[in-house]
Automatic annotation (TrEMBL):
GO biological process: lipoprotein biosynthetic process
Record EC number: 2.5.1.145
Key words of the record: Cell membrane, Lipoprotein, Membrane, Transferase, Transmembrane, Transmembrane helix
Protein encoded by which gene: lgt
Membrane topology value: Multi-pass membrane protein
Protein name: Phosphatidylglycerol--prolipoprotein diacylglyceryl transferase
NCBIfam families referenced in this protein's UniProt entry, alphabetically: lgt
Family: Belongs to the Lgt family.
Length: 267
């Protein structure tokens, strides 16, 4: 068994002001996405400058934060937030939904594209390889907060988390998600998108791979206590929300290549 590193969730304290590692991870994700996007900007939109890119990143970040928070409220714990709406403001305690943030980014991309002469899928294909940076950073934030831990296990790398009332050795599922949703997904998308792909293919690859990775990790992650298992005694909310991503991602990839082949045949 490995010892949990006991990292203080508060990175900086300045009197009553506390800056949490969880919040800093969002800054890491947004900053990293901007830096990598600037490397590919000339290929995506030669007439855009870095100010235009900053606008895109800003609106997508708003989509992540607002969509992620509202998604958690709606998908995971609506009764608690109806009873105490002020809980919505306590973002430093966690409580963000990837699927809600994903919807928020899609809405931001649609809105931004309409105003900048880019289609929805052109923007989503450009954004998709950047998203794993934020996902990976967010999972490190979950690990530091000692939240979203896994099921009890006897694997050699199991950990006892200080927030676990049972103090059992558990899967460090946050680190599994960091490895899959962050490192593996970034590697797949970064190299896949380096070559020209038909529109929608990169978006489809992101949706499919994320959905698969999330679905797998949910088998060793403890579901939210207020929800538990929702279907057949083993499906979690995370898995239910990931299934449409897997199916939709596969459909987008198939459609993108079929459409490219059809256009080539016509030419």
């Amino acid at each position: 068994m490995l010892a949990y590193p006991q990292i203080d969730p508060v990175a900086i304290s300045l009197g009553p002001l506390q800056i949490h590692w969880y919040g800093l991870m969002y800054l890491v994700g947004i900053g990293g996405a901007w830096l990598l996007a600037s490397r590919r900007l000339h290929r995506f939109a030669p007439t855009w400058n870095k100010e235009k890119l900053s606008d895109l990143v800003f609106w997508c970040a708003m989509g992540v934060i607002l969509g992620g928070r509202l998604g958690y409220v709606l998908f995971y714990d609506l009764p608690a937030y109806i009873a105490n709406p002020l809980l919505i403001l306590e973002v430093w305690k966690g409580g963000m939904s990837f699927h809600g943030g994903f919807i928020g980014v899609m809405l931001a991309a649609w809105w931004f594209g309409k105003r900048n002469n880019k289609t929805f899928f052109e923007l989503m294909d450009f954004i998709a390889p950047l998203v794993p940076i934020g996902l990976g950073a967010g999972r490190i934030g979950n690990f530091i907060n000692a939240e979203l831990w896994g099921k009890a296990t006897d694997v050699p790398w199991a950990m006892v988390f200080p927030t676990d009332p049972q103090q059992l050795a558990r899967h460090p599922s946050q680190l599994y998600q960091f490895a899959l949703e962050g490192v593996a997904l970034f590697t797949i998308l970064w190299f896949y998108s380096r070559k020209p792909r038909p529109t929608m293919a990169v978006s489809g690859m992101f949706a499919m791979c994320y959905g698969i990775f999330r679905f797998i990790v949910e088998f060793v992650r403890v579901p939210d206590a207020q929800l538990g298992y929702l279907a057949w005694g083993w499906l979690t909310m995370g898995q239910i929300l990931s299934l449409p991503m897997i199916i939709g991602g596969m459909a987008l990839i198939a459609y993108a290549y079929r459409r490219q082949a059809a256009q080539g045949a016509v030419q």
